[in-house]
Amino acid sequence: MYTGPNPDILLSECTFQASRSSGAGGQHVNKVNTRVELRWDLQGSDLLTPEEKLVLKEKLSARINKEGELIIVSEKTRSQLRNREDCVERFRAMIFEAFRPVKKRIPTRAGRRSREKRLQLKKKQSEQKQQRKKPDW
Question: Which of 33, 74, 128, 137 would give a disulfide with 83, using CB separation of 3.0 to 4.6 Å?
Answer without folding.
Answer: 74
